Each structure stands twice: as C-alpha cells, then as structure tokens.
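Take one record.
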Amino acid sequence: MIEEPPLLTIRKDFPRPTAAQVDAFRGVPTGFVCDAMDGTGALSLSIRPIGDGRDIDCTACGPAICADNGPADLLATLAALHHVQEGDILVAGADAHQGCAAAGDRVMGMLRNRGGAGFVTDGPMRDYAGIVSVGVPAWCTGLTPASPFAKGPGTVGRSVLIGGREVRSGDMIVADRDGVVVVPFERIDEVIDRLARVRELEEALDADVEKGFCEPLDFAEMIADKRAVFVD
C-alpha cells in the first residue's frame, strides 16, 4: 500500500552558476550553445516562445529552479515563487499535460516581482494579454483558457523531466526565439570554453557567405572517392 506523499517537497539549497558564468551566456544564440554541446541540450520543439515571440522579447539565460507539478496542477510552481532568486528561470513541469494552463499572468507577475528572468513549461499558458503586459519571457506549448488546480503533490528545487530532457535546479537555461537549451551544471565551464570556437567558426562562415560563397560540399573529392555518384 502506497503512503500519501507530502504535498510539497522542497530543496532550498542547490549548486548555482556564478554571475560570471551566467554573463558568459548572455546574448549567445541557442544554436551556438547546442553546437558547443555537440548538437545536444535542446528541449522539444513543442516548447516555444509564447506567442512565437511576437509581443515579448523572448530571450533569457539564467539558473533553473525546477517545480515538478503533476498534470493539471501548479502547487509546486506557486511554492517555487517563494524561493526564486534574482535572475532565475522557473522551469515548471506539468507532465506535458495539455488540458489546462500551467500558469497565467498572475504567476508571471509574481515571478517578475521576485526578479525571475523567465518561465519554461511543457504545458500551455493562459491570459496572453496579461502575460504580455507583465513582460517576462516565457516558453510553453501554446495557449488555453482552462485553469489548473493547486493540490499537489509536487517538488521544488530538485529536477524535472521536460521537453525530453532532465533539467536539474542549478542547470543553465539559455532560451531565445529558436527554443530552449539546457546546459548541465557540471558542463557549464566546458561549454563556455567551447563557445569561443563555435563563434569563430560561425563568424568565418558568415563572412564567406557575404562574399558569395555558395558551394559547401567538395563534389570533386566526393566523386573521386565514390561517396557521391552521378546517374542518368
């Protein structure tokens, strides 16, 4: 027989990136971050900028604070608001439930008041006009007018499975109009180091394209070693 869990389980202290580490990701495109992790780290494309970024500048980076809610619930999200620090990104899991909103404009307003830098969820949101007025960047699966409950159980400050990945509190979140990327806490310095090379390669290719470059494959070599063939 299963025992009733506590309504809330909260981890208040978890490792956090330094201000310098956060600053190293500021303004960096999510594509660069993925490249620095060998193409990994992106959440599912179902999690996208609210309103496709039409009315809010959906760019943010900062430490994740995770709220693991059950379907149709937001108790853990509400509890997480008590523990959000300046610059945090609240990552609210809803088990990918699409039947009601994971949060609305009042939650976004309280997140703004706590100094939160953004909100990420695997459910839809509601109160679009109010969210735009609040102005906190958000990433979700869409919009719905239906409201969630606040019954629990849930956890705060641990981890959450969202968008096909495990996100742990303290991981780095980098998000823009292309989507959301998660950098595991223990890889932050490694990824920062690799970003310089990624940027160098990107800028070099951009310069070549501006000069007219349009043939990225060496077809002569591919024909010679039979990796490519011409047919009638």
Notes: The radius of gyration is 20 Å. The first helix runs from residue 19 to 25.
